[in-house]
Design a protein that fits this description.
Elements: H1 2-19, H2 24-41, H3 48-80, E1 89-94, H4 100-112, E2 116-121, E3 127-132, H5 138-157
Antiparallel strand pairs: 1-3, 2-3
Helix pairs in contact: 1-2, 3-5, 4-5
Length: 158
């Protein structure tokens, strides 16, 4: 997989150099183009993980930006209106993530989102305790974490 990452970056740099346009959009186009070419010509089954992980990373990035904007708007709206819509609470979220990396990434992504904060992980590493400002439905909140951030992070790390 490392050789494909390196080859994709080298081919992207070659694309940018040959076109003579050093703009960001040309870099992105070159990366996508070389990614597709490598995907088409790749015959090694061990290299397939690379072609699954890159789209997962891009999907996670856009999902995180969407959730970040949504949470910022929700918190800002609550701050500027006279009525408080907060319903704070601490929720225990059961974890499918089991490695230190997966749990750390999930906890940090949750904490980066306004209105939520990862508090602690249970001793057996099966539960993540999260404080949230807006818990109108506990099960819906847990489902949004499990089907959102955790599922997308596990697609990348596994």
């Amino acid at each position: 997989m490392k050789k494909l990452v390196l080859l994709n970056l080298i081919l992207t740099i070659v694309w940018v150099a040959l076109t003579g346009s050093f703009e960001f959009i040309n870099f992105v186009f070159g990366f996508v183009l070389t990614f597709l070419i490598l995907w088409i010509i790749s015959s090694d089954k061990t290299d397939r993980k690379y072609f699954r992980v890159i789209p997962s990373i891009i999907s996670f990035f856009f999902y995180f930006i969407y959730e970040l904007i949504k949470a910022n708007i929700q918190v800002a709206y609550d701050v500027i209106t006279p009525t408080m819509y907060m319903k704070p609470g601490i929720v225990s979220v059961p974890l499918d993530a089991n490695t230190d990396l997966e749990i750390t990434l999930l906890a940090n992504v949750i904490s980066l989102t306004p209105g939520t904060l990862s508090l602690d992980v249970s001793d057996d590493r099966k539960v993540l305790y999260v404080h949230a400002m807006y818990i109108h439905d506990k099960d819906e909140f847990i489902r949004s974490i499990k089907d959102g951030f955790e599922k997308k992070l596990l697609n990348i790390t596994r």
